[in-house]
Every structure is written in C-alpha cells, then in structure tokens.
Amino acid sequence: MKRIGIDVGGTNTDAVLIADDRVIHSVKSATTADVTSGILAALKALRANPAAAVPVDAVVIGTTHFINAVVQRRHLQRIGAVRIGMPASASLPPFCDWPADLAALVNDEIFMLEGGHDYDGRPFMPLDTDGLKAAARAIKAKGLRAVAIASSFSPLDPSCEITAREIFAEICPDVAVTLSHDLGRIGLLERENAALLNAALHDLAVTTVTAFRKAIAEAGLDAPLFLTQNDGTVMQAETATAFPVMSFASGATNSMRGAAYLSGLDDAMVVDVGGTTSDIGQLRHGFPREANAVVEVGGVRTLFRMPDLLSIGLGGGSHVEQDPVRVGPLSVGYRLTSEALVFGGDRLTATDIAVAAGLIDLGDRARVAHLPRRLIEAALADAHRKLESDIDRMKTEAGDVPLLAVGGGAFLVPERLSGISEIVRVDHGDCANAVGAAIAQVSGEADQVFRDMTRDEAIAAARGIAEARAVQAGADRDALKMVDVEDMPIAYLPGNALRVRVRVAGAIAEPNIGAAA
Amino acid sequence: MTGSAMKTINLDDIEALAVGAWILGTGGGGSPYLGLLNLRRLYAEGHRVQLMSPLDLADDDWVAVVSNMGAPLVGQERLADSRSIARAVRMQEEINCITFHAVMSVEIGGGNGMQALMAAAHLGIPVVDADCMGRAFPEAQMTSVAIGDLKPYPCTLYDPRGIEAVVTKVPSWKWMERASRKICVEMGSIASTSKAPRTGREVKDWGIHFTTTKAIAIGRAVEAANRSHQDPIAAILACEGGLRLFTGKIVDVERRTTEGFLRGSAVVEGSDDDRGTRLKLSFQNEWIVAWRDGEAIAMSPDLICVLDSVNGHGIGTETARYGQRVTVIALPAPAVLTSPRGLAFVGPRAFGYDLDFRSLFATAGAQ
C-alpha cells in the first residue's frame, strides 16, 4: 500500500509518501492563497526524490481550511435556514446562539415551518409543503446558493427533511441543500448549527476540493483523492464537497495520529508547534483523547466529536515583543519566509530567536547575530513557561509522562519540562499531520431501524453491516474497532423498534498479492 | 408584609444559575442551556426578573409553581419556549379566578430551575427563592408539598399546538402524577405545567428555601474554579459538603423513553484510584442509584451528580455518552426528603428498588 498524505495548513503544505508501513520521504512547502500551487509545489518536491516517484494507491489530504474559514469569518456564504417543527421551539430560531458577527455574515433569511416528528415517531404536525415551496421560491428569488434544513427528531425519522430536499430540487435545483440528520444526532440546536455551518461553507468546499483535484492531476498522479475527517478516517472527495464540516478537526487528529505512528508510542502527551499556534493534546491507545464537553467552532455549539486540544498562540512565526519580552500570540503566519529577520524581513519572530540560539539553521544567520543574549534567553524562557503550564493543564494523570514534540516549530520545545519523563522527537516529526493523513483509517457506518430483536442483537446486527461496509471500502477486517454506537427506541412503532447507529473504523488492508491493479 | 428585600437577578446570576441548576438536576430536569438562551433573549428585550425571599410572602399571597414536565430527551428536540410556561400559569389564574403574587419552580434542578424565571419575565411578577425538591425528581408526587400533604390540584398543562388541559381534581398526588402524565405523554412527552397554586403560608411551611441562591452560588464556585484553573469539582464539594464517589469514563449507556420518562442505565469504567472497577448508574430521568460491584453505594434522595471531570458541569441522562470522562459525586438531600414520610415519596423504594435508604452523610443534610 503506497499513499501520499498531504496536510494543507494555514502556513505550510506538507507532503509525505508512505510505502510498506514506512515513511519514504517528506517535504514542506509554503501554503499559497490559491491552495493549488502550494500543493503542486509540495508534490513536485516530494516526487523529485526518485524513491518517491512511484505510482500510489491513494492521495489523502487533511486540511484546516474549512474550520479556519469559520474561525476567521472568511469565505463564508449567505444562506437560507429552514426549521421544520413549528409551533414548538419558536422562541429559539436558527442562529439563536451564534456569535452576532458570524450570524450577520451567514444568516440571510429564516423560514420556520410546521412539521417534524415526536420522540415516538408520530408526526408532530403535518408537514407544511406549501410553506416549503414558498421558501424555495424565496431563496431562488434572492439568488442564495445554499440552504440548511433541520426538522425536529429527524435522526429518528428523516422524512420531513428528505421531502424538503425534493421540493428544493424541483424549484431551485442549483441550491445546495444540507440536511441536519446527515450531520448530527438528537439535539436540534447543535445538529442545526452543524447544518448551518456546512451550508455556509458550500462554495468554499467546491472551490477547495476542485483545487485539490487540479493540483493532483497537474502533478501527474492518477489515484483516488480522499479527505480526512474528524475521527481520523477518510472520506471520498465527493463526500467532502457535500460535508465540509466533517473535516473540522482533521488537522489536529492527523497530527496526533501521525505522531503516534512515527514514535511507536500509543500513550503520551503531544505538542504540535506550528507557525501560529501550538496544539496540546493527549494520545490514548494511539488516538487523541476526545473533548468531553460540547465543542464550539468559531463560537458555535456543535456536537462534533473532536480531540481535546488546548491551542495557544505560540509558534515558529510568533512575534517577539521586547518590552517586556513576550512571544506570541500574534504571528506572521505564512509570511514567515518574507517577514522574519533570517529571511530578510524586519519582524523579530520565534524562528529568529531559535536561529540565534543555534537551535535550528534556517535562512541567513548573520541577520540575527546582533540580537543580545539576554533577549534570546528571555524569549526562549517565555516560550518554555507557556508550554510547561499549558501541557500540565492538559495532563490527566499525576506521574511523569512522555511528550511527543512535533510540527515545524518543535524547536521551541526545550529538552526538559516538569511533569514530563522525556521529550520524544521523531524523524519527519515536522510533517506529522501529513503522515497522519497518509495512515488515516477506513470506516463503515450502519444506521437503520431494527425490529423484534433485543438491544444487544440489534447492535450486533448493525455492527455486522458497518463492518461489511468498511471492508468493502478497503479496511482490514481484523483491525476494525467500534468507534461509536447509539441506539434510540421508537416507541410508536410495533415490535420493539430500535434505531441503531454504529460506526466502525480500522486500518487499510494490505492489497492482496496478485490482485488486479 | 411583602417585598422588603427584592433583588434584581442580573445576567451573571442567570449564567451561574444555569451551571448550578444543571449540577443540582442530578442528571434530570433537562439542560438549563435552552432556558438560558430564552432568558438572554428576554433580557436583551429589556425584561428583568426579581428574586424574593419566601419569608417575605404574605400568608394569603398566591404563588404559582411551574415545571416543564416530560422526558429530558424530548426537550432536546422541542426547545423550551418561555411563552409556553407563562401560558400555563395564566390558565391557573383563569380557572381559579386568582392573581399570582409570585412564581417558583417545582424543582431547582435542571432546566426547571430556569422555568420560573422565564414565566416571571413574561408575567411581571417576582420569583420566590425556593422550590419543592431542592434538586430534580421525575414524578409529580416527589415534592415537599406532597410530603406535606398539601392539596394536589388543579394542574394545568399546555402544548404550543394549542392544546390546553386541566386536571381538575384528584384524590392524591400519586393520582395527579398518573393523570397528568397520561396527558403529557399524548402531548409528546413534554408539557408546560403549572401545579396546584400555593399560598404564601404553604411556601413558608413546606417550600425548600433559598435554593435559587444556592444554585447560583454553586455555579459561581464552578466558574471561578475554571477561570483560575482550580479543580471545579473540589469547589462544588467544598461549597456543598459533598463526597466524591467515582472517577472514570462512560463505557455504556442504555436508555428508553417509556411512559413519559427516560429510563435506563449508564456504566462508568474507573480510572485513577478507581481503576479496575465499574460503577453502574440507574436512572429514571434523574440518577437514582449508584451501584459498585452490585452494591448500592449511593441512592435517592441523596443527590447523585455525574459531572464532566474537566469543567465540573453536569451531564444529563439524555446527554451522557460513550467516552465521556466523568466524576460522580454525592450531595446531601434536604432534610424534608430524608424524613420517614419523605422517604416514602422519594426513597429508593419509590423508584422500585428494594433498598433501605442509607445516607452517605452522617447528619441528614441541611435544608
């Protein structure tokens, strides 16, 4: 199995080739505004190495592009929001718990209509199909290109949302429709929020995935394209176009999974020092520890399962202030190679301090020779203090544990930290997130109603279906693990009806010898 | 003599109340988050809510007792609307030809800790700093006013589809529970209700006093600990004289919505000092009994609270899910609940467990 993993970050685009369970080569390249040329440059650099210029089975891209768009309020589109379930919930309409600035950017018009279901599967109110038609016509007249639709209890019975999509397809076929039941579970507000964010990212998703495909084609690669999603598994590029929110946490997940793979450690603290931020998390059995609480993305509550990460404003591109001496939280970001002193710029950054201290060799060392020793020491001490206290915050056990230091700015992590047994640095550690993308797992999901079975039988049946789907998608059957299970009784239906959703994931199977190419 | 010490509740109080009420909810009562959103909106529109001491009520003042009744899971899909609870209170005024002087929650725990404030904002009357449980319980007869044998009727129920129902007369609180629950189930296992109106005298004699203030204090302690990176759970235990029972990760949740309740169990696998053991939590809307190796180590009416190990916030029976890292604590029950008559209403046998109540707290908790 040969795979190229690519991580498109805010600062760098990294690429690795993994073959036969080994990292063959890794490269780092600057992210570009158009995305495509940055990926193309990384791929060209990667394949300039003869060992890496081989046909591959898949290209897997992990990106923070979509979550950054929400956090930075950029490239979002105005959408229509359709809530089905009136007259209940009327005082809490769509966007009711969004930060005002984000809602103002995204919320174009809200339609609140009768319909939806009750907990036992009975219709709550007859679906207002005339209202849906009017909403579709209004959205068409306004020229909106995306709509999010959320109906009460749709994870139990999605029929109202599906009917709504059919009506929109008829009246305004060019409008992209996100249905909430595709993205979330019970919890109308959080599920609807995920759908609203997804709709707001639609055009960006189309543009970005198209740019990914173009770069891969221009690099001369003929392999299927996948994107990584929040739980460390891959989705096909078409799925990513329809559901960009599913990639929200993939950058962090990839970096931690990559660190585990490169080090062989399954249980450790991880710090990924990038250009702008450091993300601190914890590996448990080779996977990131998940956040307990409701996860907010750009200030919006969602039900996504995300790695529990503490993100601090410290990275290789961090500004260094001199009075008093302070590193971050502002950063030059992807302009590091033009604005940092060692690259001929006039902004003192953490990278310049590290070059002056002899921690790394980058750019023109002579340009930082004048920095006073006291400044260098004080700046490094400030960075170390920040890392030490925040790593300690994220630890869940009292004893000393190993720390995996990865990412392009890992040189800022000192050799000793209190509460840490050893600092582990690994080859290709600066491309851990691209490695994580390359080794991403394959998943399978089953979501259906079972009758005349016990709960255990129903879950086992759903698991069997999910496993078969994962194997079909290329997973190694023996490596599959259940990563999520949820069941909801449907009291209204006879025969102890139970809706069960099971998700399994596992490593990719080695190709059979002699299998058709 | 009324109104000597009215206090305006500000938004900070309400944010703290949402955190504290969720902890006192012992897993039930639904998340206060949706109530918080309603109140933020009402405050943005200019509404303000006053809090009054129960001791300042005149004996003949009428007090409305409100609750959003039903299965917490349903409240996640049919979101609390402040106008519904206000309508249930107005129905009581219409059928009894009375005017309410103030409103209180039947239970401080969970979303119902916010319902009295939502009603008060629309009705323009104060909230009484008291409730009838000091926590949350699933059934209508599990209250201090039922333990006090006060009149159980009438009860009004409202559904925003325009369904209004009144249970006019019943012979007992248990019958009120049975009759109103049937209506609630037909309404979709959720209904805005206003229980039998209480007089000021009754609230002074049988209300559980100062629980709104208590919930706000718990919320403030948790948020202060979180801000200063202290252990929020230790802050709750210090604030309330509670006990840490178990720390671990949720590994199984079984839940079913039956007869208008959310029932089931959750299993927590131990970590840290509890490694190698499991705690099973049985619930009926609220956490009722905690079992360790088959032995009941904590039970109603002591409060069993399942908290997020990281931020100390409550975790509801409808939101508990696989993988969550939790700390289970117990807090002492109000004294009225641990009296012999109290235990008949809210002890483990009231939930179908053949257990003698054993409190974890030497002196049954203070009110």
TrEMBL record, chain A:
InterPro entries: ATPase_NBD, Hydant_A_N, Hydantoinase_A, Oxoprolinase-like. It holds the Pfam family Hydant_A_N. It comes from Bradyrhizobium denitrificans. It comes from the Bacteria. Residues 3-172 form the Hydantoinase/oxoprolinase N-terminal domain. Transmembrane segments: none annotated. This is Hydantoinase/oxoprolinase family protein. Residues 191-361 form the Hydantoinase A/oxoprolinase domain.
